[in-house]
Design goal:
By secondary structure, this protein is mainly beta. It is built from one helix and 28 strands. The strands form seven sheets. A four-stranded antiparallel sheet has the order 3-2-1-28, with no helix packed on it. The longest helix has 23 residues.
Length: 349
C-alpha cells in the first residue's frame, strides 16, 4: 500500500472515531447533569414543582416538570427517584407517581390506582417499583394501613402489598435487601426489611420513635436516624445479619434527613437549624455543629457527592418561594438561590 492510500485509510479511521465519540458523548438532554430540587408546594394547592440547578453555570430553572404544558408538577411533590434514564416523581397529595424522561423531564406516563394512597418514596429494582404508601386515615386522622406496594412497570399491575407498621417512609436498597423506615411522626419505631427476590417481609427491626432517613457508609453498614420526641438516636445496623451494632443517642430531637460525605466516612445529621458531622467510628454524638444556619424554616438538607457541598432548603413561610443555601464541606457559606414553595428534597445527577 502506497503512502497516499495509507494516508487515506488513516483519515477515514480518524473520521470514524470522531463520529463514534460524538455519538457516545452526545448529551441526552439539558437536565442530564446538575442538581434537582423537589418543591412540595402548598398542601391541596397543586403547585408542587421541580427546580433544576446547573452546577457548572449556576443557572437556575424553575418548574421543569409539569403535569400539563402550563401547569405544575402536582399536589405535594414529595420525592424523586432516578433509574435508567427515568425520573419518578412521587406526588403525595395527588396519590400518583409521574414518570418522565430523566434528562429532558418530558412526562411519559402516570402510576396511579386504588392502592396508591398518599405515596412517599419509590425504589426501582429489576423492573419493579417499590412504593412506600401511607394509606388511608381514620376519623381521628391516624394512619391505619401503611405498606410497601410492589408494582410491575412493564405490565402496569400491582404484584403485592407488603404490610408494614404505620407511616412507611424512606426506602433504601443495598443490593440485597430493601429497607423501609416506619416513621409515622414518631408513632412507629421499626425498620422493615424486605427481600425483593420474593417480595417477602423478612423482619421488622425494633429501633426507637420515628425512624426516617437512611444512608450506607464506607463499610456498607446501614445508618438510620430516629427523630424521637425530645431526643433521638442514630443506629448503625449490619445489613447482612440485621443486628444493631451501635446506638448513638442525640440529646435533642434530630431532623428526619440523614446524609453522608462523598468518601462515606462521615454521617451528617441535623438538630434544629444546625448541621452536625459525625465520623462513622464515633460512639457518641457530635459535640459542636459544623453549620449553625440562620434560615427561617429548615426543611431539608443533603450533601453533593461530587464535591461535598452541603445544601439546605429553607421553606420560609411554606406559602411563598423558598430558598436554597449552599455551604462548602467545611461549613463555609458559599451561595444561595430561590427555588419553589417548600424545597423538600435534593438529588444530584
Amino acid at each position: 500500500m502506497n503512502k497516499m492510500n495509507l494516508r487515506y485509510v488513516y483519515i477515514v479511521f480518524l473520521i470514524a472515531v470522531a463520529f463514534s465519540c460524538s455519538d457516545d458523548e452526545k448529551p441526552k438532554g439539558k437536565y442530564e447533569h446538575g442538581a434537582i430540587i423537589v418543591n412540595e408546594g402548598g398542601f391541596g394547592s397543586g403547585n408542587g414543582t421541580v427546580t433544576f440547578y446547573n452546577t457548572s453555570t449556576t443557572e437556575v430553572e424553575q418548574n421543569i416538570l409539569r403535569a400539563t404544558a402550563t401547569g405544575f408538577a402536582g399536589d405535594v411533590a414529595q420525592s424523586i427517584t432516578f433509574k435508567d434514564d427515568k425520573a419518578y416523581l412521587v406526588l403525595n397529595g395527588d396519590s400518583k407517581i409521574q414518570i418522565a424522561d430523566a434528562n429532558t423531564f418530558e412526562t411519559e406516563s402516570i402510576i396511579a390506582g386504588a392502592d396508591i394512597v398518599a405515596p412517599r418514596y419509590i425504589e426501582v429494582i429489576n423492573g419493579k417499583a417499590y412504593i412506600s404508601v401511607w394509606g388511608p386515615y381514620d376519623a381521628n386522622y391516624s394512619l391505619i394501613d401503611s405498606y410497601v406496594l410492589v408494582y410491575d412497570l412493564s405490565t402496569g399491575t400491582v404484584l403485592k402489598k407488603i404490610d408494614t407498621d404505620e407511616g412507611t417512609e424512606n426506602l433504601l436498597y443495598n443490593g440485597s435487601y430493601l429497607f423501609a423506615s416506619n416513621y409515622n411522626y414518631g408513632g412507629s419505631s421499626t425498620l422493615a426489611v424486605i427481600n425483593p427476590s420474593d417480595n417477602t417481609l423478612v423482619k421488622q427491626i425494633e429501633l426507637s420513635a420515628g425512624p426516617s432517613g437512611m444512608v450506607t457508609d464506607a463499610n456498607n453498614k446501614l445508618w438510620v436516624v430516629c427523630s424521637g420526641w425530645n431526643s433521638g438516636n442514630l443506629y448503625r445496623i449490619n445489613p447482612s445479619t440485621l443486628a444493631i451494632e451501635a446506638t448513638i443517642e442525640i440529646s435533642a430531637s434530630p431532623g428526619t434527613d440523614l446524609a453522608i460525605t462523598p468518601d462515606k466516612q462521615n454521617i451528617l445529621y441535623t438538630v434544629g437549624k444546625s448541621v452536625y458531622k459525625l465520623p462513622i467510628g464515633s460512639t457518641s454524638e457530635a459535640s459542636t455543629a459544623l453549620i449553625n444556619s440562620d434560615v427561617k424554616a429548615f426543611y431539608t438538607f443533603n450533601v453533593n457527592p461530587d464535591n461535598g457541598d452541603i445544601w439546605i432548603g429553607d421553606a420560609l413561610n411554606y406559602a411563598t418561594t423558598g430558598k436554597v443555601y449552599i455551604y462548602s464541606a467545611d461549613g463555609t457559606a458559599k451561595s444561595s438561590f430561590e427555588a419553589g414553595i417548600s424545597p423538600g428534597q435534593f438529588k444530584f445527577k
